[in-house]
Design goal:
It is a single chain. Helices cover 42% and strands 10% of the residues. By secondary structure, it is mainly α. The protein has two domains: 130 residues, no CATH class; 277 residues, Glycosyltransferase. The strands form six sheets. A three-stranded antiparallel β-sheet has the order 3-4-5. It has a three-stranded antiparallel β-sheet with strand order 6-9-10. Strands 13-14-15 form a three-stranded antiparallel β-sheet. α4 packs parallel to α6, α6 packs across α9 and α13 runs antiparallel to α14. The longest helix has 21 residues. The protein is globular. Keywords: Hydrolase. GO terms for molecular function: hydrolase activity.
Length: 443
Amino acid sequence: MEQFRLPKIDMPHLQLPGSIQDVLAEARTRLAHRPKLLQLFMNCFPNTLETTTKLLEDGTTFVITGDIPAMWLRDSVEQVMHYVPFAKEDAELQRIINGLIKLHMRNIAIDPYANAFNEMANDWHWSTDDKTDMSPWVWERKFELDSICFSMRLAFAYWKETGRADIFDANFKTAMRVTVDLWKREQRHLENTAYRFERDNGIRHDTLQNDGLGMPVNYTGMVWSAFRPSDDACDFHYNIPDNMFAVVTLRQMREIAEFVFRDLSFEKEMAKLEGEIDYGIQLYGIYRHPEFGPIYAYETDGFGNYCLMDDAGTPGLISIPYLGYVNGDDPIYQNTRRFALSKENPFYYEGKVARGIGSPHTPPNYVWHMALSMQGLTASSDEEKIAMIDLLESTDADTGYMHEGFHADDPSVFTRKWFAWSNSLFSQLVYKAMKEGLLDERS
């Protein structure tokens, strides 16, 4: 197996849109009493625009993930999501986000099973011998249910923030149609799909078992997913946070179908699919835990087997309110949150410096900055939000940026020094706390 490692793409340095410069100016005043946090915010908030964003001549926008020269659907959305609230009156920012949405819709039509794409049809791939139906446009073809959900999430948020409906063209409706057909097909994966994925690199979580088909599942109404948001293979292929995200996405797409495309038949079709998935979550996705009570499982196969854990990637169990499936005060979510932030979660780590959620994607005892940011964004108390910001501030290893995972005993031992998604999520938390007055200097 040959892994195709490419030199870093030379990304042009974009002039920051005026609204983003205004945010940085505001931070210079409001965070002046916390110089390290200010510097982190000044580095991380514009990081996506300064280092990973390329405006293409056809009007679209290509956003690499950071240290990998490809665009993940999921990552690229989360890399720009903290900019959406400033787009309404900023034409430059609208051009960037509008272009990204349009490129996503084009990519979904090219291959709805793919998770990451190339800037052009250059036939670059993460691995040169994956056993799956590759395209020269596709960097990696790991089917992750959440990927398209993120694409639609960005479009919906942009529409609601700006009121601009010019993104909803024929390509957008085609992508919606492709998405619904895909999800309906993957409700009965074993019977209906030709999708396979195998990678012979000796890493178990990088490939699907059963000759690339995945482990057996029972029909539940939920949608099958091959891989998790971490790009690791599912143990049991009904990922509960992913299916929650699909429910929310269908609600959003229904609104677009009804009020933009005026297609009530399509809206009704999506309502039926939404109901089937949600029914499956409630019937098969809740586990009666002896300590925490009813909690949402991370994965199930519909045969009564459960994967009880949480992963640092979004969507995860901690991020359920962030996705919009239920509010943070939902009793089952509260039980689930207590589970995820306890040692009953096999990927929750406590060390000399930090405690938080990690991932099987990184070594044991590595806490993820994204998990700490998400814990802060979904916290019910101001004290927890501030505690997460303080912890994030103190664990950057004096690099000025967030990372993927870092050792809970020693933050100077970390993975991925250039990971734009993590920088963006941190920025979202800090800006939210700043606007809420939580970071103001106290007299």
